[in-house]
Amino acid sequence: MPITTPPSPSALPPVLPASFYGRPADEVAPALLGQLLVVRHDGELRAGRIVETEAYLCEADLACHAARGRTRRTSTLYGPPGTAYVYLVYGMHELFNAVCQPEGEPHAVLVRAVELLAAPEGARGDGPGRLTRALGISRADDARSLTRPPLSIHAGAPVADVRVTRRVGVGYAGVWADAPLRFLDSASGAVSRPPAHAIGSGRRA
Q1: pLDDT for 30-45, tens place per residue?
Q2: What is the CATH number of the domain that holds 30?
Q3: Structure pTM?
């Protein structure tokens, strides 16, 4: 059963080890569903249950930031597994990813939605930009380890029914946009609801 009450620091489940992330992103992405994303800053704990993810796979994946090779912006993607990759899009949204695969292989999982367990009143987790605002994740967290505070992911209950779709907002990537690399908890009401034209390449599946 999903956790439905805010966790306390002393009652948090075990943190996921770095070895959990040392696999291809399309394996880690569905495995992250149901896990708990926890942020601790200035004595405050915020948390959410992960209910939607997307996998990004290496330099060959035209939707992955690594498609143009290693740059100052993407250097974190090439780091050790279990590292946070946080970047800015559209000049306003900071998005959170978990780096996967052994160091030097740029795979990552974008966390697209969480069910909020502890967050400011009125906050929302049904979208990648909303969840980072709700949990207080920013570019200052880029390159942090996900195995210890202030930013960590903890073991949660497995998701019983995983839905798989094409990715969102990467139509420019052609066939890569149509790859089945978005994973959702079918039972959650907190998943994002992008318009149909934003899913995949725009071509009919």
Answers
A1: 999 999 999 998 889 9
A2: 3.10.300.10
A3: 0.91
